[in-house]
Structures are given as structure tokens and as C-alpha cells.
Amino acid sequence: MTSTAELPVSSGAIFKLNQDSQPDPDQDPLKKAQGVYITVHGHFYQPPRENPYLDAIERQPSASPFHDWNERIHWECYRPNAFARVLNDRNELVGIVNNYEYMSFNIGPTLMSWLERYDVEVYQRILEADVKSSQRLHGHGNAIAQVYNHIIMPLANERDKHTQIRWGKEDFKSRFGRDPQGIWLAETAVDYATLEALVKEGIQFIVLAPSQALRCRPLPHQDDPHPQWQEVGGSQIDPTRPYRCYLKPSLSIASSPLATTKSRPSESIEGLPYIDIFFYDGPISRDMGFSDVVYSSSHFAGRVGAAVRGDHRPAQLISVATDGETFGHHKKGTEKTLAYAFIGEFPRHGWTVTNFAHYLSLNSPQWEVELKSVTAWSCAHGVDRWQDDCGCGGEGGVWHQKWRRPLRNALNWLRDQLIEVYEEYGRQLFRDPWLARDEYIQVIRDRSPANVTRFLSRHQTHKLTAAEQVDALRLLEMQRHALLMYTSCGWFFEEISRPEGTQILRYASRALELAGDVAGVQLEKGFIKRLSLAPSNVEHFKHGAEIYRQLVLTAQIGFKQVTAHYAITNLFNSQIHTPDAPKQLPDQKRVYCYSANQLDYQMQRMGSLTLAVGHLKLVSDITWESENLVFAVLHLGGWDFHCCIQQFTGRRDYSHLKEKLFTALEQASAAQVILAMTQIFGDQTFSLQNLLAEERHRIMRLLSQETLTRLDQLYTQAYRDNYGVIMAFHRDELEVPQELQVAAEIALGYRCMMTLRALEQDIAEAQLSWNHLGELGAIATEAKHLRCRLNVPEAKQILEQLIVRLLWQLLYDANGSFGADMQRLERLIDVGHELNLGISLQRSQELYFSCLHSQIAPLCTTQDTEADTNQVRQLLKLGQKLAVDVTPLFSKLP
Fold first, then answer.
1. Which residues contact residue 310 at a Cβ distance below 8 angstroms, ignoring those fewer than 6 apart?
2. Which H or E element spans position 644?
3. How many CA atoms lie within 13 A of 54 on its CB side?
């Protein structure tokens, strides 16, 4: 289903709607609580997917055609919400709305770190949205924090609760430049112990599901010091107002899983600590996730309007909350619905778009609430979804979740063992080991050597040696992974061997390894024994221990694997040289989260054999541990590699090693070289299969390129030889033989790619050949006549990038030739459509729209000559070609 903004107005009307008015302060709903307020909260979060050894996400085939699921969801949700389109009835762009500027939101810190690295433009739009919302809402930004890595807080020990909150707060502050007023709890899972931790950490409010409230009452006051409690345990709480929740002494009993509803706290509330709570509207929130209501802005507004209370209260808040990924990922195109609701539908009804913090500043709670003992928004059984076979997450299937409790028990056992290691060894290095852990988030946010050094200097018990610095960082990383292994996603679904369950086991594995490195303790055997009690639904795995052996241990990466990766990769990053002309590569290179300091490198070729020998110092950017290694890699041609690695034992040994290997190479015998390598390095070898997946796939493509090029040329020849035959089939409306049709499509696709690469070179050299544009047009015509579908994804990407580059030059390069640049750009856009590659003009639209009203619109009324007017007219026609509504500006031209 396609989302529609149902926009009956022009762009001029939209921009008028979106302008800030200046009402009487006494009548301004932004300054005084009056009328209806709307808050739409998006909980944006993805499970952390980084390989614990690489600090990077590896390719995930299930996310194809994207690299991984973060990337896929980014292009379907995170970016579209930063540049949400408002369209008219001709499907032309009327406005671009940054939805984050109008919606309340939290974005998981691990996801924000990924966004910061992957798309800094969207990352900045999110930060700017918080600033602009803060300016509009008198100092209350839309962003709220999140407990750091989505841990189920009621199941965490007290220390982990506080660290999760502190890391979440510090990560938030480092990005948004302010302390968070509210925080999002993973799965809204809460108990009173969690509330107590939140209050101690200065959190002012949280957001919960209406089903989590037990009872409520008006706050006691002079006229009614003992108001009656109202039971609301069946999701009956009124979500249009904020509530105050006091931490009463007897509630520590009520928060126990063994507590009964007969437990009643003291009536006295004076001087008690408290936290404020908003309950989102449950029915509307469910409809957003599970019905079609968000596919239409008018239907969405109608659904919200149905929740408005008609009891003449001065102010009320209609708040809804759902996964942020609903808008664009789960429900394609609905970011447009949201955009027009914010700037069109809601204002038209006289409703004020706000956030929780702003509403709280206008309308402090007048009601008190007590919560059920332990609850979450996605489990009807408290928090059993993350510890028991409760049925939640089973999707109505036959699979059990009997593995949940043993998995939780195994991780709790490991956590407690790691606490002992951390305290015993940490107190030797840190003045306060747990304070060091709490402040380690400052290192996670900035791993520069200077910042790490400052951190260690601040916390060390004495001036640490280099080896002690490594151990200190290992201990802190051990604790980071001990927290990551509790990421809620590992229990959320129906099977332990899913990627989410495997991921948290990989974090546990890394924590085990780091504990062994520092303390020499061997905890893995005990951990695996406990995992064997977690039964899998998949017969192949049987239980958690086998999953650990097959999917976790096989994914571990050490210094030797990284060195093998470096050695084989460098064969393709450097030129082949003869023995008397050794190649010296650059001294330093990054391999994921390692710095590779190359101390020596020599490569030689003899016939079909290529041999490279090198001395490498690898340093982990995360723990600062390092190793000096020697490698030799022999490429026998094609896919066949033989790589060996050992510790560096001195310059003399290394010199003899090189001499022996290159002497063996002179015999031009693969067997002799491999024999020499075995004598020196032993039997352990690495091949292409041992490479990290990303680089392995790149090298596979490189190795295949010569064959593919030769096949492209053969198909092209077959196509040329049989062109007349293919045309005859089409003339007589007969089905073309598959072999000939495939030859035509491959040949035209190859020709298209060659032309586009030539066009790229033209633009790089500040010129654009009409010949190449003409050739693309001819290819498009030929493909149309022969009914060929060009399947060349790379061509689509190149075309989109070329159009953006040419548009930027046209708009911002004062030295360009306007007329010629405009003609070429228009022709390139036309050709892009004619090739039927499914090109997207969104980036070009954003670039054009960014200067439409600031630069192009003023020119419409300030032109002195007809030539200038014609130039503006051409710019507006370009907007039409980019599907931007410029009709109001055409009317301003003389």
C-alpha cells in the first residue's frame, strides 16, 4: 500500500502552515497549558551487529541488496525520516520535513554510533532536529536517552542498572550537548528497583505502556488529604495526563515477584523521591503498528482525534509510541504520512505538536500512580520473555523457548565470575574499578590515544606500564562485553540459534577470552556446560553448547587471522615486482580495529607464482595489545593461496627466512616453495577462505573480473552476429530464444557500464562528452526495441551520483557554463529514465530543494534582463524535471 499525504494545498500554503506565528503569550499553547497536545514517540533501535573482534558489521546476505540490515533499514527508515517528502496530487515534491524535529524520539546509542560512521549527513539532521525542537519548545528537545544496550533492567543486577543508565546519559550528552530529561527503558521493562536507580541518576520521566499501571489517584492536597485509589490494572489508566510515581518504602516489597496486590504502601508522600511517568495511548499505538491507519495522514489524525477527551479539561496530551522503524521500514512510505500530519493535519485541527518534557514543563502531574511489580510492553507475563518459556515471541508456532532460562542462567554465572576477575585485578590498576567502568563510556565514544591516556591517568592507582595499560583496557572491554551479552534481542524471538542469540553468545565469548588474557582463568568449559542445558529447536544444533561450538568459536578472530588477511589482501593492493625491484608498501594501514605497522615487505614473481614476505606489527585500537609477526604468502594463481605466519624472533632469523623462501621461488616450483614454508612455519596455513568475509568477497570479484570481461565480450560478439535474427523474432512477435535474449541483455549491460565509466572519467576531468550521452541514449533505444531489461545495479548507482555531481556544479560552480551544463544535466536525467534502471532522484531533489527558496525564488522577482529571466525559467523547468512543485514560482516571473 502506498502512503499518501493527501495534500490539497500548494507549496506556498505548506510553507505558510509551517511558519511560526507570534500569538499572545497568554494564549500561546507553547507557553501555557491549554488545548490538545500531540506527541508521537519513535523508539529507534537495532540490535548491535558488529563482530566483537572487528568492531564492524560484516555482510549479511539476508539484507540484500544492501550490505547489512542496519544499512537496509537506514535507507528505508532513518534517512527517509530525516528527509520526509510532502507531495502534491501530481506526486511532485512540495516540502521536505525533518520528522525528528517534530516527533519525540530515542535512538539506541549503539545505533547512533553506527549512524555517525555511516551517514554523517543524517546523523547531523538528527542532532539539528533536537536543537530546533528545543528552540520551538522553550528549551525542551525531542530526543530522550535510552539505557545503553537495550538490557532488560528488572533482570539486571543493581550495578549493571546504574552503568546502563550512566552510559546512556553520557552517550546522549556527548551527542546532543545537554543532559537528558527522560530515558527509554528497553521494552519499557520496569520494576521499582529500576525506578529507584533512575531517580538516583537524575532522570525526570519515563514512558510506559498503559498495561503497566496498577492504580492511580489524585495527588493528596489540603482539601482532600486522602483521595481514593482507582484500580486501573486492565490498561484503564487515562493516558492524557502525566503521573507522579513515588518511591515508597513498602514498594520495595511490592516490587518483588512474590508480592501480591494486597501489599499497600504508606499514604504519606511528603519528601519521598519520585519520577514522573507518561503512559502512551495503547489502542492508537497498536493501530500504528498493526493496522493501515498510518498510511493516510487524514485517517491518522482522525484516529488521534477520537482519543481527545471532551470533558472541558484545560489541556490534555494524546501521546502514542511505537518502534520508529514502523515509519518507512515496516510500513513503506509512512514517513510521508507522519510529515504531513505534523505540518498539516495536526495544526489544521488546532492541536499543538510537542514532546513529553515540554508538556511536563507546562502541566506538572496532578495524579499519582503505582505500577505493577515487574512489567514490559511486549510480554504479558512480566519479563518472562527474557528468561522463561512463556510463549511470547513464539509467533504461534510449535517451537518452544525452553532455552531461555538456561541461557539466562549461563550468562548470570559468567557475569558473576567476571565480577570476581574484574575486582581482583581491577583494584590493582584502578583506584575505583566500578567508577572506571561507569566512566569508560568516555573511551567508547572517543578511542583516540590522547583520550585513552587521559582516562587511564585519571583512574590509575599508579603510573601504569605499557603491559598494565593493556590489561586495564582488556578488563574494561571484558566488562563492556559482559553488558552487551545481555542485549534483550537475544531472548526476544523463538530460537536461540537466530542471529540475535548467536550475537550475544559472541559477546560472551569475547568476554571469556579477555578474562583469560588478564587473569589466566579458564571459564569457557563451565560456560559451555551450562549452555548445553539450553535446548535448541533446530535438530542440527541440539543445544546452546553446540551453537557455541559451530557459530561462535568458528567466528573468533585473532592476530594471526588479521595478519593473514593483511598478507593476502596486499597482493591485490600493490604491483608485482621482480626480485631486483622489491616493493615497499606504506608503513601503516588500518585493518578494521587494528593498526598494521608494516616494518618490512617484499614481493617477487616467478612465472605464475607470486611470493610476498613481510614483517608486521599489529596493534589493537581497542585494547592496545600488539604482536610482532612474520608472514609469507604464495599465490599459485586463480583462487589458490598458501599463507603462513609466525612470531617475529629477530632480524637475523627474519633475514634468513626471506633468503630461503626467495631462493626456493627461483626454482619456479610451487612444491619447493611450499616445502620451504612448511619447514620454516610449520603445518598451520591460511587460505582465501580464512580471510575476513568482506575482503574475501572483494578478492573473489577481482579474480573473477578477467573471466567476466572475456564472457561479456563473447556475449557481445554473439549478440552482434545474431542481431538480425533477434530483430526478426521481435518483428514476427515470436518469443526470442533464451540464449539470444540473454546475450542481448548482457551485451547491452556491458556496453552501458563501459559508457558510464567513460562518462565518470569525463566529469572527473571537468568535461562531459555529448558522444557518451548519445551512446547511452542509443543503448536505451536498443534495449527498448529488443525488450531487454538491463540488470546492472552498479549503473544505477553511477547515474544517480553523476546527476548529483552535475546538479551541484550547476548550482554552485560560478565558473561553469550555465547553458551547456543545464543541457547536459537534463539529457543525463532523461537518459537515466530511458535506460529503465529505476534511478532515484531523491538526493538530487534534496540538493535542488535546499536552494530553491533561499536562492532561486528571490531571483524570480529581481531579474533585469530577459536573458536572466530565461535562466531562472530554465532552473524552474529543471525543478519540474526533478519532480519538484515550482508552479507558484513560475507565476512570479515577469
1. none
2. strand 640-647
3. 21
Cα 10 from Cα 887, distance rounded (Å): 9
Question: What secondary structure does DSSP assign to 452-509, as a single string?
Answer: HHHHHHHHBSS---HHHHHHHHHHHHHHHHHHHTTBTHHHHSS-TTSHHHHHHHHHHH
Phi, psi of 321 (to 5 degrees): -145, 140
- pTM for this one? 0.91
Strand 205-208 to strand 274-279: parallel, antiparallel, or no bridges (unpaired)? parallel
| C-alpha torsion angle, residues 491, 496, 499, 502 (rounded to 10) | 100
Helix (H, G, I), strand (E, B) or coil at 663: helix
- Report the half-sphere exposure of 742 (CA within 13 A, side-chain side): 6
Cell of 674: 611450499
User: What one-letter code names the amino acid at 841?
Assistant: L
CB 283 within 8 A of CB 316: no
Question: Is 278 within 8 Å of 144 (Cβ atoms)?
Answer: no
CATH code of the domain made up of 11-55+62-256+265-371? 3.20.110.20
φ/ψ of 35, rounded to 5, equals 90, -160
Assign 527 to helix, strand or coil.
helix
Is residue 783 classed exposed, middle or buried when 0-12, 13-18 and 19+ CB atoms within 10 A define those classes?
Answer: buried
**177 backbone dihedrals φ, ψ, rounded to 5°:** 75, 20
* Residue 657 to residue 366: CA distance in whole angstroms: 80
Domain ranges of the chain: 11-55+62-256+265-371, 404-555, 559-691, 697-840
- Alpha carbon dihedral 468, 471, 472, 473, in 10-degree steps, equals 130
> Along the chain (894 residues), what's the average pLDDT of each consecutive run of 10 residues?
46 43 70 94 94 90 92 97 95 95 97 96 98 97 97 97 98 98 98 97 97 96 89 95 90 43 46 95 94 94 94 92 96 96 96 98 96 94 94 80 97 98 98 98 97 98 98 98 97 94 97 97 97 96 96 92 92 50 55 93 92 96 96 92 95 95 92 94 90 81 85 91 91 90 93 91 72 91 91 90 92 80 92 92 94 85 76 92 92 79
CA–CA gap between residue 116 and residue 48 (Å, rounded) = 14
Within 10 angstroms of residue 540's Cβ, the number of other Cβ atoms is 9
